[in-house]
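the three lines:
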Amino acid sequence: MKAFDYHRAETVDDAVGQARRGARYYAGGTNLFDLMKRGVEDPGALVDIGSLPLDTVRSTDSGGVLIGALVSNSAVANHPLVRTSYPLLSQAILSGATAQIRNMATVGGNLLQRTRCPYFMDPAFGACNKRVPGSGCAARVGFNREHALFGASPHCVAVHPSDLAVALAAHDAVVHLHGPAGARALPIAEFFALPGERPERDTTVAAGELITGVELPASPYGAHSWYLKVRDRHSYAFALVSVAVGLHIDDGVVTSAAVVLGGVAAIPWRVPAAEAELVGQAPGPHTFAAAARAAVTDAQPLPQNGFKVTLAANSVVRALTRAAGRSQLRS
Amino acid sequence: MLFNGSMTHTIGRPVSRVEGLAKVTGAARYTADTPIQGVTFAALVQTQIPHGRVIAESMAAAAARAGAAPGVLLVLTPLNCPALQPVPVDMSWDLPLERRPPLADLTVQHVGQHLALVVADSPENAAHAASLMDVDYETGHAQLSAAQVLDEPVIVDGPDGAVRHGTYRPDHFVKLTEEKLQDRRGPAEPDGPTGTTVEATYRTPVNAHYPIELSATIAQWHGEQLVIHDTTRWITGERRALAGYLGMPEDRIRILAPLVGGAFGSKSFLWMHVALCAVAARDVGRPVKLVLTRDQMFTSTGHRPRTVQTLALSTDDTGVISSTEHHTLTETSTVAHFCEPAGLSTRFLYRSPRLDVTHTVARINSPTPCFMRGPGEAPGLFALEVAMDELAAATGQDPLALRLAHVTDRDQTNDRPWSSSDLAGCYRSGARRFGWEHRPMEPRSLVRNDIRVGWGMATATYPGRRMPAGCGVQTGLDGHVRFSAATHEVGNGVRTVMTQLAADTANLPLDRVSFESGDSQFAAAPYSGASQTTATVGSAVVAAAQEWRRRLGARTLGDRVSPELAAELTFTATSDGAADSDTVSQSFGAHFCEVEVDEALGRATVTRWVAVLDCGRVLNPKLATSQVMGGIIFGVGMALLEQLVHDPHTAQPIGEYYLPTHADRPDFDISFLENPDYALDPIGVRGIGEIGACGVPAAIANAIHHATGKRLRELPITIEALLEPTLGPA
Amino acid sequence: MTPPVPTRPIRLTVNGIAREINADVRSSLLDLLRERIGLTGTKKGCDHGLCGACTVEVGHRRVLSCLTLAVSVDGADVHTVEGFADGDDPDPMQRAFIDHDGFQCGYCTPGQLCSARALLREFADGELSAASFDGDPDDVAAGPTRLTDAEIRERMAGNICRCGAYANIVAAIRSVHEAGDRRS
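prediction for all of em together
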């Protein structure tokens, strides 16, 4: 790692100003510092935003919640507002990483973390279009067991590793940004970018923009939500497949639903077709199976990840079952 | 015979580790913790292709770039490194020491070969300079698997004999001539009335030791004396190897390793980076400290190589085994010998009149492998114990009954009886503790909360070994008695157990006695491996303590000891290796486990484990139980999680190597049948360090078969192998 | 040779002692503790956040020091294993680890101890883990009422032990927890 300039920002405008001059935002560092050690990221300057006043969680006037970008993952997961009104969010965060990392990592940093694709993470592998545009995609012809089922392009098959993002997608969250051109609010569905022709771009965040917070509307799901994460060991591993589901059940009928898959695309993969199978139906195995089939209909497996199609479908059923509260099954 | 009904005050008791307070307060010093005045920091650079040659101009340019970086004191490459000698042939002949010294030339034999050592004034500067050293290569044709070697025309070896290709069939395992890797008995072809044959191929992947402590070395010169701090588990061997590399007398080298943060078979034999630190320290005139990165641990400290094992068990027409064949294909590097001896246990574990065991080793462009916990036993018992389960199923027998029917009272390879063996007792006790009698024979019979449940078992076995060793005794003026040997506290509890042995044998209270390890100036001891340390070093400690008490005679030792008495009670004792014997010392055990398989998610959970072991006398049940639990968790990793994956196009290791976490282990019920075995040593012990890991992957695979009906013969057993579609048709 | 890399002065309180160090801006807190301050109790097992051996407390929360940029915690209150004991008296968790044999080689132990101590405080504060969602649904809002084995294992899952001392570590934690419950 070569030496870099390091400054703390005192205000959001100060931070944005430094970013305009080329500095990279630095908060918990759990991803950026790691990538700097690995030689994947090489910033000439860091602007440490850790002291900015973006560290609160509060209710909004519309009955939702606004979470500051610098609130730690642990603090979000354990916040009373989140635990009572957005248990899906709490559960998703707590299934990620470890207690130590959750204490360090921020909401903003979690959304901006880079893929865990091993070809991306190690510069010794020359062919990675996300890291070096135009160099090729080694995963397509190599190790791709953990890679995308949906939304891939010929240039990149990486997945986004965040659990938080999947739950935020299920809640129709909005990301608040502040940049050189001022403030804007970006629905989470527009925040992440599919690789397309520009796999080097993970998000639609513009140069110098700072995430200031994430806002969730009032949740219709209450207790009927579940985050299921399937990975190679029982903890401390990224998802092979994860599923966030939320159901609003009124008088024995699903009136609204969210089904979002993680670990299968460069973005949280919301599946309206699966949701459509649920709305207007009574929760139950037949309904859940229909939703699961719809969730994986468009899957485009790679040579080593075909198992993820079955896994995703079964995981959707399991998550819906848990969310509907019908099964005693440990998951 | 010692401690046999006589008054012992600590042997057999759960004494806490003597270095425990240091370990829990952070006071415990490991190699990289050692404060050294004026130390400089090194970083290793390694090759990124499996075969070929570094282009000399790019090596020179890379060295110049690194040399110009801030804080850099030295860049050692094949272009400027003083030539090192090969290690003595009797070390590289049958142990996994490389035949080529490091930085010998620009040719490349594997990914992760040492290419340069950068020394700088800070760890950050050293790492940065090393990161500047990309080089260009002429790539050669690489052979990356045994299958490829067997498939391709033979490559002619060069004249110097250091780099070799092709396949070979070694005669025996390391220096143990009785452990025959090519072995037969009985008729050349199976004969007699035949019953059932099961034959299958079993595969185990590359596994890494992954001790949490990264390998580290500090090299410093005092005039012509070289002092090495190293994370090593073979001080005596390392001293010899370094003397060889550096062309200097052994007695000018001192090696220190007071505590080692886990080894599991690594931290020996592959000392090339240590030699480079010594060279660098001489050049810069200051101590040089190197800590390997976690990635470098996969290519620089050995690994368990792949095996492909074909195993065939045949019965006669009464269901008794008549023939056993176990053929292993495994791999080593092009520059060192190592054979994973998977078939060794098969030679003797179950009664079988006919036997055919072979091992074929292919030399490939990979880093050099070496012993890893249960070398041979771990992958070999996976194959054998799954095959036994397959035979039980094919013949309609309970897996336990089949094994009980084939227990032997003697080693069939030499017809000598076991000195002490109660494998049948292990089976019976374990089965009872587990509740095996409630096991339905049919797979897919047990379900709990919609999750499949299976019960499996396997046999564990490991040889009792003993080598010569010494033990020094120093009596202090304060009445404290210090025993010592150049052995290694790697977490095996040797310091505690030796303290207990010394205290009880010398009839001293525990707090008057200490045992130190980890210094080449102490009495010589062999490597800490092969589960031999307690028998080996213990025998020397007992000899020393007996001599100490003999010399003390009728006197008592107070808090103030005269210099004359202290001198009289300061000496070194030695003990021999295992004597020629009419019997064979072998440890046995039985594993029983329950595994839940959630087929919808492909997830296997090992819930509970019963292990009963016959390892001779147990000197410290607290530590022995910890060793066995650790071994079982090691086996859980081997069964369900661990494989070192290589990118198919570049041969580079890829992905994260998963070990079991707190959330991945079963509940334990561990017990020992205590039958002291005095044939191996006067204490009655056999080893305990590895047997816990042996048989574990098979027990899990057999439980998974019982749960699901799926017979899985390849490790690790991952989600893909267990996942079942659960959605019916639309 | 090129000019040396500029350093920045940072202040840390480590185990109650105020320290001022001229840090390399690239240095992790782990390397700073070990190589500059000489507190070698905290260990490096991977340097990439994959093993937990480097766990320390910063601002009374457990964190990975290998992924902590030292300059970014300027002014922080840091606690390492060397500060857990009260002089020569090991704290209850350290004592429990010895009694229950919660370690073998001991290399991951400082990180395990730091996490174990933090775990009991987190539980007492009603903090959740992923395991809390498998229990009583009321636990999610109110906090789990029982520290089950499953809870302990999940909360400790970020500390890898290759020697496999897990069962005894959990036993040690449980014994301290139960002794604490009896006292309160």
